[in-house]
Give the backbone structure.
Amino acid sequence: MRTFSSAVQTVLDSDTIRFVYLIELQFNSTYRFTSYNTDIIYDGNTYSADGGLYEFDTPKFSSTIDREAYKVVITDFLNEMAAEFDLNVIGKPVEVKVALLDSAGAPMLGTNNVLSVYSGFVDSPSITNDYEQKMAVLECTSPMADLDTVNTLYTSKDGMDQLSSTDTSFDEIFENKEISIKWGKV
């Protein structure tokens, strides 16, 4: 069972719970964004308040193992995300955490006070542009997304060489090899 500090427990027991998001994208460069109104330093890393975090899904609990998607939208004024998408971000890690706010409105950033609400991978990145704002849309999936993946195995000489360069089981399949078989008495 997870334990929280008394300050966090007090907030959880209260009628109103306020929180901010901390989102980390581990692409070719690492990006950290927060929904708080100023930058936040958590676990030695700075989460940018003006990084363009525009929209994010709320945390969901699921009682089944499925391919639950999670969506993050970031404004992309400087084309940073578009450049990252061009370098391929599919399969790169995304982590979303929640920090509760105390009664004064300050985030509680103790290591045992921040909740991890999503950890998964980028599944389908896209850029949308409606001539007023340019958005980077990240649809992410959980590690359980691999459960519905179909892997194809090509059974040919070249296909087997990709799995193991020392495998010789298909080396003579496509060659013109003749074997003399003697029938009858010798």
In short: The beta strands are 19-26, 30-34, 40-42, 45-47, 53-56, 69-75, 93-100, 115-129, 134-141. DSSP finds three helices and nine strands in the chain. Helices lie at 6-13, 80-86, 157-163. Residues 39 and 49 are 5 Å apart (CA to CA).
